[in-house]
Amino acid sequence: MEGDPVLQLRVFSLNCWGIRYLSRRRQERVRLIGDSLCREPFDLVLLQEVWSEQDYGLLREKLGSCCPFSHYFRSRVIGSGLCVFSKFPILDTLLYQYSLNGYPYMLQHGDWFCGKSVGLGDNEQQQGVMATSSPLQLHAEYCRDKDTYLAHRLVQTWELAQFIRHTSHAADVVLLGGDLNTQPQDVGMRLLRGCTGLRDAFAEAKRFEGCKDGCTLIPDNCFTVKTELQPFPLGIRIDYILYKTESNFAVKCEELRTTTGTAPGQDIPYSDHEAVMATLHVRRQERPQGASAAEPLPADPVTEAPADAVTEALAEVRVGLQGARRRRYAAGRLAVLALLLLLLQAAAALGALAGWGAAQPFPALSCCLLAALALGILLGATCLHLLHVTEGRLLQAAEEEMRMALPLRRP
Amino acid sequence: MEGDPVLQLRVFSLNCWGIRYLSRRRQERVRLIGDSLCREPFDLVLLQEVWSEQDYGLLREKLGSCCPFSHYFRSRVIGSGLCVFSKFPILDTLLYQYSLNGYPYMLQHGDWFCGKSVGLGDNEQQQGVMATSSPLQLHAEYCRDKDTYLAHRLVQTWELAQFIRHTSHAADVVLLGGDLNTQPQDVGMRLLRGCTGLRDAFAEAKRFEGCKDGCTLIPDNCFTVKTELQPFPLGIRIDYILYKTESNFAVKCEELRTTTGTAPGQDIPYSDHEAVMATLHVRRQERPQGASAAEPLPADPVTEAPADAVTEALAEVRVGLQGARRRRYAAGRLAVLALLLLLLQAAAALGALAGWGAAQPFPALSCCLLAALALGILLGATCLHLLHVTEGRLLQAAEEEMRMALPLRRP
Lengths: 411, 411
Description:
The structure is a homodimer of 411-residue chains.
Chain A: E1 2-18, H1 26-39, E2 44-50, H2 53-62, E3 69-73, E4 82-86, E5 90-97, H3 111-114, E6 117-124, E7 130-137, H4 150-167, E8 173-179, H5 187-196, E9 199-200, H6 201-204, E10 207-209, E11 239-245, E12 249-258, E13 276-285, H7 307-353, H8 364-405
Parallel strand pairs in A: 1-2, 7-8, 10-12
Antiparallel strand pairs in A: 1-13, 2-4, 3-4, 5-6, 6-7, 8-11, 9-11, 12-13
């Protein structure tokens, strides 16, 4: 069934932690990453959190000789932070921005502003093998015990799975690399892998070298927040290289490596995350005798998904939906109260002007300040209300889709 | 080369003009649409501007017997307004929201709030033919002579073309139906058709019946704004059914019809747009002897696109980019001025508290009002600045992609 190896693909993925003014020793690290990628060239480099276009420009300059083709995916205010560098021409691109991505008022988390997305670049590799390579990032998990964003991240995972199912038919090899902010045993990861048939390079690798258990956020890295990793003395694995094949190809992961904290010969690591590096062998497979040339889309979108993962995700999305409704009502109530206060003040002012009251009970200054405050609250609460209406709608849409997908799984 | 007809597909597309509280005789028209679709059943019904979920519910109820499968695409505050009804099961869905879609402060236009999108539903039709059907809508054209949103609509068209190229490989037949707010000879339409290879059912139809020149916004419709159609006495054609095939199938449009204003036996039309109805014949084609089973993606994404359309779109996007930059600077300047005013007032207030000034030059009430106003302007201008920063980024991204696509076309 199997022919000779037709293609060796070396893939590099790293969350670069390149937040301007916030990430420590950013420019130094970006230069280090560029130099390292020049020394050991890869066919595909999938980077995340490259928020600054100057950093992207610097990397493009450095990688000009080994990965001359590149694309920077722009979105929202700050950008998606995603970029892809390739040894072979990038023929076509597409950016898919998740519908839900945190809240604009959570400034300290900032996910909303950067428009977390999955990018997609089509490459023609050697010998006519088409590959789509996608750098991606999901919403961060700021607190594992009380993960406020779990529902948002699960909706992102669900949309990501839909996106992969719809776009993967255009290529022979589908490659994803990125920071999924999800551990291998988490419901999100089971959902994604189950719904798409994507395989985890770490689990499939013939040889592995790097941090124990393939961890990519480790206490030994001087940039990680040690307190966050306290429950995990070895660290956690949240960065992945995932792959699958379409048509008549088979992929095997020959080797997987991770960086291990401090960069060789330096006093700092490349990032607060560890890089993941995979060597994949793509082989052409003969089509079985009598098989049809046309390969229809699998009839059941969650054929491979454990119903448990969908059920679990569904429960979390429902919890999120309840929260969104609570916040929507709270914001709506606040807006109504502010409006009532404004109307009351307007009535009092009109009364004073018409001379109904004997004397104005409050000084004009306090009245004006109170009116300005009420107006501010009214505007703010209305915006918040609309935000949570939208959040509720999108969570409900995902909830319905998951619910619809479930009966197909039941025996 | 051609076998027997394997499938007849009857497709219906209509912009339903279903804006709650604003669209005239909305509920009556929705009932009319439902009744009409029950009398003459279609295999696929692609509707736009169904903003109210109650309307969708009513249609779902009415179409339960002829099109039992349906999906409502939710997005943003109001929703995408898109829904699809199908005679055959919908196996998988995906919603792609365009990155640019007007401005939130243009409340009278409201496009921003509804998150214009393209939906996608996978159907397995009879005899194993896979179809993806996409209802879609692009940003409205409010004034043809001074079309402020042309750049946004062209970026949407560009993203739509990318989306179709990436998702169309999953199906045998790709169907799009919707209100493109673009006339057939416009740059957007040439760009879309050229970049995707989509064919226009009106241009390809063997038989046609309906409004002259296939117009879908006609002066005879009592809901259209007559002044907007003054330069076009016959009306304009902005609603389309477009199609293409992948793999081993060929599609021909046997018949195309449009409604012609007032609904039969009623005093009102179904909507302010005319419905488009196509009968397509899908035939299985034999693969030529010696042809490879694997069909690679076309190497050049704009192989079929006239370079002229890309050049023209590029010029319009650049005009849009200049506008976005102007608006960004204006908002930024305003924010800085408001901040200076606030600082000045703070200094004056501190001075008065410290007893530096002999007497306060302004009454406290005026000072407070001015400070509140300055604060409001500062907040508003900062939001506007961020909005136009994002707009500029996204226009620049599209400009770069179009520019990159161009040299491939040049001899």
